[in-house]
Write a structure and sequence with these properties.
With about 950 residues, the chain is α/β, with parallel strands linked by helices. The chain is built from 35 helices and 26 strands.
């Protein structure tokens, strides 16, 4: 090509090449065997020119190369680079990568668990570690030139996201920020904010995947392409993605074949197996089983594959199903290599623990090339699965969605069993962003020519909806930033209240809130124009129709108020009836999910706050614990009793009855049905409506009939316009309140937190008291509760195991609330201390309510959860793993993770506790040593 250039063009090209060779980017590019993509080059050039960068690109596209270039620049300039990641597993992986390139002398690691070479010029760390260093004014920050924030889209995380914004806001101005994000739809907005708080920031967005992704639906024996690609005849035009007509036809045919659920009640429905056989014979379309899917992909050369199942139990069950089906994906040589690696990685685990952890069943599956991957697994086991998968020795992994957010573990194929998952509150459709993140694992750069995403056919599947998920790039970055007590004392200590307030106003949360106000203001203006039109439409020649409409509304409001009062009276009567119940009463639950015959096991607690986790509720009566005729033990709420309830019969509850035992529940439920199954509840008579005798309603009706507009022939037309006017006026006022509420929201919350801390003597104006300095060292959801416990000496005199039990209540949160059975607690001093912690929380909770600090908005102290106290106590008391896990009824991975979090907070308490006349600091360090043993000690991540 060079001979085609003119002398001037050739000279210009030579100068450009010489200029590039003089940059830091040129030798950096030579470190890689492959050429850099345009977006990587653009980002690196911006970085070398002194700008900060935000790189938003798909999973697996090589964003981290830009972060590695920042490391390269820092070393060239003799400055430091901090490389932050959201999870310890990513930190460990990136540390290993950088050590391989630059050697162990130049790279350090700080994750809370591990501290390796902390004075190195390159330090890999979790984002929380950097936040803590900034607040503490660590000497390690001197000479810092670059900070890489990998997976910066984590700032949307409602539990941890605020940490990312704290770091971005508080980093010194001299530090250049490199932000690496998944593809988000509002990257420009995020970039504008970075420009505001960090200075000149280049936004580089790449939506092209390095490996093309093909979307499929597997139905029965056939794999359907989701899209039918159509291009212009020249072959260079834009492709148009239409949903495969064969798939649409299949969906129409299959989804129209529904069965009538009433047939089940009539006894006409055939057995499940017969119906399944009949359906297969009729249509030959079914949802393939898990072993069947893996065999099919293996036959077509589409392994390794990750199957996403939104359930830990489902992942384990999938592995068992493949084993029972005789599935083997490894040859003898691969099996031997797997065994060698596994035995090497687990050599430090005692043999008695291996049995408890299900090691031998896990190893058998690994040797066959099959594994599960979820948060309930021991971290060491997860690491082994990841290593074997990357090496190609595990070819089928069944994983929860947490893998999609975790370390680099790409596959050739990704399988989604369903497009619905449990979000902690309900089963909900996965979002386009979640779909993109899950399927982003498909296609290994440099290995696969193309990646494949396979969705399994399910009755009711809508190909159009699936195409929308696959074709939409709507994954907006939403700030989850909220001030906390720890943040407040640290800010005031460094900057004073006024400057702190100004700093918080620069958060991305406030930036987004301020931008949203512009659109709301425009809507208010439109509404005001609409109100003028409605006012004209309701004008009546006989009189003031606005006054007449107001009287109609007053009448309706009064009728509604009386109806509510009647409902409240009925609820009060129902609550009073519940208070009379005794254990052994047989009742009829009138409504709700557990309607029907029930036996009262425990009348319930009096009115007050729930034993819940996030937020709180008020209750207007007891919550009886009952055994239903269907053998379920449930704690009912007042909503289940809209009418009063009376005991229909009495039964003796055996002393040996155990609500956790299925056999015990079965026997007692059988006795309940025998004793009272023939009884019918008394029918509740409805009372006369209060509205019929209400003087105010009678007065309003009389005045309404006497109003001039009442006789208008067009009265109802005017009334419709008046109703529209009223609704639009109400909506407009709500919008105006939203504008008022979104302006300075973060600062207002900060002001309320400062006021509460001042009340508790943590702050005095711009001065931080000794109490405040202690709080500044405590990070976590229950920072203020921990500080108050230290101030009140709640933990003084406790043994290390007892202290571990108490501290566990500050970190643990049950995955599902289970208020049917109270958690088991250590006796003696530990139990008394835990009770005192709950009482202190109650006092703080009342104080937060007084200062309008709302837990529902993510600010404030949730109730401490005592569900891990016994397990922490047992483990710190040197009990065996088998005994602890059996009594805790908890997977090993969860146990290790909670222990590590307890250890982290114990370390903070040891640093914050009084050094004189106190045993807490010494016992906290001893508790750390007691917990950091066995599976907890030899799990390097978690």
């Amino acid at each position: 090509m060079t001979e085609d250039l003119t002398p001037a063009e050739a000279y210009a090209a030579a100068r450009a090449r010489a200029a590039e060779q003089a940059t830091a980017l040129a030798p950096f590019r030579e470190m890689y065997e492959f050429g850099l993509d345009p977006f990587q080059i653009e980002a690196c050039q911006a970085l070398e020119s002194g700008k900060g960068v935000l790189v938003a690109a798909p999973t697996g596209s090589g964003k981290t190369i830009v972060g590695e270039f920042a490391v390269h620049l820092a070393l060239l300039q003799g400055r430091k680079c901090f490389y932050t990641t959201p999870i310890k597993a990513l930190s460990n992986q990136k540390y290993a990568d950088l050590v391989k390139r630059y050697g162990p002398g130049k790279v350090g690691l700080l994750t809370g668990d591990n501290s390796v070479n902390g004075d190195a010029p390159i330090i890999v760390m979790t984002t929380e570690v950097l936040r803590n260093m900034l607040y503490a004014g660590s000497q390690a920050l001197s000479g810092l030139g670059y900070v890489v924030m990998d997976e910066v889209h984590y700032l949307s995380d409602r539990f941890r996201g605020a940490v990312w914004e704290e770091v971005i806001i508080h980093l010194p101005e001299s530090v250049t920020l490199v932000s690496l994000s998944a593809t988000v739809s509002n990257a420009e907005e995020f970039g504008d904010w970075l420009d505001t708080v960090r200075g000149d920031t280049e936004v580089i967005v790449s939506e092209s995947r390095p490996v093309p992704l093909w979307q499929h639906v597997l139905a029965g024996r056939r794999m359907y392409d989701l899209f039918e690609e159509e291009t212009d005849h020249g072959g260079r035009g834009a492709s148009r993605r239409e949903v495969n007509p064969d798939l649409l036809r299949l969906a129409r045919t299959e989804n129209s074949r529904t069965y009538n659920p009433r047939e089940r009640r009539r006894g006409k429905m055939v057995r499940e197996a017969d119906r399944e056989r009949e359906r297969r014979q009729r249509t030959r379309i079914w949802t393939p089983g898990r072993p069947e899917v893996i065999e099919r992909l293996d036959a077509e050369g589409l392994l390794p594959a990750i199957t996403f199942i939104f359930s830990r139990a489902g992942c384990e069950a999938a592995v068992q199903q493949c084993l029972y089906a005789g599935l083997r994906l490894n040859n003898d040589e691969a099996r031997q290599r797997v065994r060698e690696i596994v035995e090497e990685r687990t050599a430090s685990i005692p043999s008695e623990d291996l049995h408890v952890l299900g090691y031998y069943e896990w190893l058998e599956a690994l040797e066959r090339g099959i594994a599960a991957h979820h948060a309930g697994m021991l971290p060491t086991f997860k690491e082994v699965v990841e290593e074997l998968f990357v090496r190609g020795l595990v070819k089928a992994v069944f994983a929860t969605e947490t893998l999609a957010l975790g370390i680099n573990m790409p596959a050739r194929t990704v399988i989604l069993e369903k497009l619905v998952k449990w979000n902690g509150e309900q089963h909900a459709d996965i979002t386009p962003g979640e779909y993109t993140q899950l399927t982003g694992r498909a296609g290994r750069r440099g290995i696969d020519v193309e990646g494949h995403a396979v969705v399994l056919w399910q009755r009711g599947l809508d190909p159009g909806h699936l195409a929308g998920l696959a074709g939409t790039r709507t994954y907006p970055l939403r700030s989850s930033f909220k001030p906390s007590y720890n943040m407040a004392v640290n800010l005031v200590d460094q900057f004073g209240s006024h400057r702190s307030r100004e700093l918080l106003e620069t958060s991305f949360a406030q930036f987004q809130a301020d931008r949203s106000v512009v659109g709301i203001s425009r809507q208010v203006q439109k509404n005001e124009e609409g109100l003028e039109g409605y006012r004209e439409g309701m004008t009546c020649h006989l009189g003031d129709f606005e006054e007449y409409a107001r009287m109609r509304r007053d009448l309706k409001d009064r009728e509604t108020e009386l109806a509510k009062q009647g409902a409240a009276q009925r609820r009060a009567a129902a609550a009073a009836s519940l208070e009379k119940l005794k254990p052994g009463d047989v009742i009829h639950v009138p409504t709700g999910k557990f309607a029907g015959l029930a036996l009262v096991l425990d009348p319930g607690i009096p009115a007050g706050r729930t034993n819940g986790h996030r937020g709180f509720e008020h209750h207007d009566g007891p919550r009886p614990l009952v055994l239903t005729a269907e053998r379920q033990v449930k704690r009912l709420a007042s909503i289940d009793f809209p009418i009063p309830v009376e005991a229909m019969e009495r039964m003796r509850i055996p002393k040996s009855f155990n609500p956790r035992s299925p056999q015990s529940r079965r026997d007692l439920a059988s006795a309940l049905r025998t004793k009272a199954g023939h009884l019918n509840p008394d029918r509740h008579r409805r009372e006369r409506s209060a509205a019929a005798d209400d003087r105010e309603i009678n007065r309003l009706r009389t005045e309404l009939r006497a109003h001039p507009c009442h006789g208008c022939d067009e009265r109802e037309d005017h009334a419709r316009w008046a109703e529209r006017y009223h609704r639009l006026q109400r909506d407009t006022r709500q919008l105006e309140r939203r504008i008022e509420g979104r302006t300075n929201t973060i600062a207002r919350t900060f002001d309320r937190i400062v006021a509460l801390l001042t009340e508790l003597d943590y702050l005095r104006g711009d001065d931080v008291t000794d109490n405040g300095k202690r709080l500044a060292r405590l990070y976590g959801e229950l920072d203020l509760l921990a500080s108050e416990c230290l101030r009140d000496g709640v933990w003084e005199g406790l043994t290390p195991p007892e202290l571990a039990a108490c501290v566990s209540a500050l970190v643990y949160e049950a995955r599902q609330s289970d208020d049917a059975v109270a958690p088991k607690l250590p006796t003696g001093n530990a139990k008394a201390a835990l009770g005192e912690m709950v009482r202190i929380w109650g006092r703080l909770d009342a104080l937060e309510e007084e200062f309008k600090i709302n837990q529902a908005e993510g600010v404030g102290q949730r109730e401490p959860d005592l569900g891990f106290a016994w397990a922490a106590y047992q483990w710190a008391s040197d009990k065996g793993l088998d005994e602890v896990l059996r009594e805790a009824e908890m997977p090993a991975g969860d146990f290790v993770r909670w222990c590590k979090q307890v250890i982290d907070v114990l370390g903070q308490i040891a640093a914050a506790a009084p050094k004189e006349n106190s045993t807490v600091a010494k016992n906290a360090r001893k508790a750390v040593d007691s917990l950091l043993r066995g599976v907890v000690a030899y799990s390097s991540v978690g």
